[in-house]
Amino acid sequence: MLRSILNKGLESISLPDMIPKLYSIFKLRCPKCLKGAFFESRVYDLKKLGNVRNECPKCKVNYIPEPGFYFGAMYVSYALGVVVFVAIWAGANWFFSDVTVWTQITILTILIVVLSPLIFALSKIIYANIFIHFDKDTSDRVEKDDCNSPPFL
Length: 153
Fold this sequence. Notes:
Shape: elongated
Structural class: mainly alpha
Largest sheet: none
Radius of gyration: 18 Å
Distance between the termini: 46 Å
Strand content: under 5%
Helix content: 40-55%
């Protein structure tokens, strides 16, 4: 029974449905129209680190549907941190045979500190993409304005 539920869930996700979500995540754009900015500033702007706009400047979709909505992004952030950890650990062990544990810990610590703002931003946009879905009609209705979207870094 569990297998049929899992298979049904995976069958409902198709590649064309994933392309707008990936675009929204990598470009940090509105999940609904793909044209408006999601964050108030750049990812590495430490004064406004992770501040999400209240609504999309283009399609006016509400980015904060309820208080504390982005607390669930902690789980996504944890998963992204695990991916970074495993990638660094595996890369250090596969490509460099004489790397000590303390060297790996130092590299991991530096990379996690440097990548923390990016992981924080990605976790929020990924979490928003789980609940806010792309709408082609909305996307066609609004204009694209690159001046309104902050640069990635």
